C-alpha cells in the first residue's frame, strides 16, 4: 500500500527544487540600470500659487486618487504646512458634498 502512495516523478518537490525562489528578477540584488538619483518633488501649491480652498474642488481633485483618497506628501511633493491645509480643505469640501468620500 505504501508503494501505491508514492509520488510519481522526481523527488524535488512541486517547485522543481528551486526552494520557492523566482529567478526572473535575478535575485535580491537586482537593480535596473538608469537614473540612480531621483528628482526632488516641488510643492505645486507654492510654485503655481494655487489657492487651496474648499470652494475650489477642481484644485483639490489634483491631490486625490480616482477613488477620492488623499495623496500623501511623498507622492505630491507638498510641504508639511501646505499638506495640512490641503487635508483640512478637502475634508471641508467632502462634508459639504463637493468631493466624493475616500
UniProtKB/TrEMBL annotation:
<dbReference type="Pfam" id="PF01084">
    <property type="entry name" value="Ribosomal_S18"/>
</dbReference>
<feature type="compositionally biased region" description="Basic and acidic residues">
    <location>
        <begin position="1"/>
        <end position="28"/>
    </location>
</feature>
<comment type="similarity">
    <text>Belongs to the bacterial ribosomal protein bS18 family.</text>
</comment>
<keyword id="KW-0689">Ribosomal protein</keyword>
<dbReference type="GO" id="GO:0006412">
    <property type="term" value="P:translation"/>
</dbReference>
<dbReference type="InterPro" id="IPR036870">
    <property type="entry name" value="Ribosomal_bS18_sf"/>
</dbReference>
<dbReference type="GO" id="GO:0003735">
    <property type="term" value="F:structural constituent of ribosome"/>
</dbReference>
<feature type="compositionally biased region" description="Basic residues">
    <location>
        <begin position="30"/>
        <end position="39"/>
    </location>
</feature>
<dbReference type="InterPro" id="IPR018275">
    <property type="entry name" value="Ribosomal_bS18_CS"/>
</dbReference>
<keyword id="KW-0699">rRNA-binding</keyword>
<comment type="subunit">
    <text>Part of the 30S ribosomal subunit. Forms a tight heterodimer with protein bS6.</text>
</comment>
<protein>
    <recommendedName>
        <fullName>Small ribosomal subunit protein bS18</fullName>
    </recommendedName>
</protein>
<keyword id="KW-0687">Ribonucleoprotein</keyword>
<dbReference type="GO" id="GO:0070181">
    <property type="term" value="F:small ribosomal subunit rRNA binding"/>
</dbReference>
<comment type="function">
    <text>Binds as a heterodimer with protein bS6 to the central domain of the 16S rRNA, where it helps stabilize the platform of the 30S subunit.</text>
</comment>
<feature type="region of interest" description="Disordered">
    <location>
        <begin position="1"/>
        <end position="39"/>
    </location>
</feature>
<dbReference type="GO" id="GO:0022627">
    <property type="term" value="C:cytosolic small ribosomal subunit"/>
</dbReference>
<keyword id="KW-0694">RNA-binding</keyword>
<dbReference type="InterPro" id="IPR001648">
    <property type="entry name" value="Ribosomal_bS18"/>
</dbReference>
Amino acid at each position: 500500500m505504501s508503494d501505491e502512495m508514492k509520488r510519481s516523478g522526481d523527488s524535488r518537490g512541486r517547485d522543481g527544487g528551486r526552494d520557492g525562489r523566482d529567478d526572473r528578477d535575478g535575485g535580491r540584488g537586482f537593480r535596473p540600470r538608469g537614473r540612480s538619483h531621483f528628482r526632488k518633488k516641488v510643492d505645486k501649491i507654492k510654485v503655481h500659487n494655487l489657492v487651496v480652498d474648499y470652494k475650489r474642488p477642481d484644485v483639490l481633485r489634483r491631490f486625490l486618487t480616482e477613488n477620492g483618497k488623499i495623496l500623501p506628501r511623498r507622492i505630491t511633493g507638498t510641504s508639511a504646512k501646505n499638506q495640512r491645509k490641503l487635508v483640512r480643505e478637502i475634508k471641508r469640501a467632502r462634508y459639504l458634498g463637493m468631493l466624493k468620500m475616500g
